[in-house]
Amino acid sequence: MAKQRVVSTTINGESKSFLCEPRQTLLEVLRDSLDMTGTKEGCSNGNCGACTVLLDGNPVTSCLVLAVECEGSEIETIEGIADQDGLSPIQSAFLENAALQCGICTPGFIMSSKALLRDNPNPTEEEIRFYLAGNLCRCTGYDKIIDAVQDAAQRQSTSCQTTEAS
């Protein structure tokens, strides 16, 4: 058994320290050590995107990131995306557009969508499809997911316009 290391990081806005072995992935630590099971394991080899989280603001497949690499980093998971009212605009859009079925891929799609809409608040359908190409869904068609991201972009745009007008 390898010697465990202490890793200090910020997860969903809270300072956290955890013990992990040097070989453990961020996905394993999130799910097994920190009991944050919203991030899903799909393929365990970085091909499906189900385990996508934001690491220092960038979407990464957490099954390919060693937890020890996260020292001093900021991590955002699906558990941290909700706003004070319960759901983020992206989560609401996914629900209202029926952009999910079994739910395994949904957290990864939502985290990738958050990064996309932060970087490009008004993406075209082609830009959405390109950005989400690393996220796979085996249950449903991608059209509803694309519709949900477009809806979320519109919600965020409307929200920003309302805030600016106030």
UniProtKB/TrEMBL annotation:
Residues 5-81 form the 2Fe-2S ferredoxin-type domain. CDD domains: fer2. InterPro entries: 2Fe-2S-bd, 2Fe-2S-bd_dom_sf, 2Fe-2S_ferredoxin-like_sf, 2Fe-2S_ferredoxin-type, 2Fe2S_fd_BS, Beta-grasp_dom_sf, Diverse_Oxidoreductases. PROSITE patterns: 2FE2S_FER_1, 2FE2S_FER_2. Its EC number is 1.2.7.4. GO terms for molecular function: 2 iron, 2 sulfur cluster binding; anaerobic carbon-monoxide dehydrogenase activity; metal ion binding. It comes from the Bacteria. Keywords: 2Fe-2S, Iron, Iron-sulfur, Metal-binding, Oxidoreductase. This is Carbon monoxide dehydrogenase small chain. It comes from Thalassoglobus neptunius. The gene is cutS.
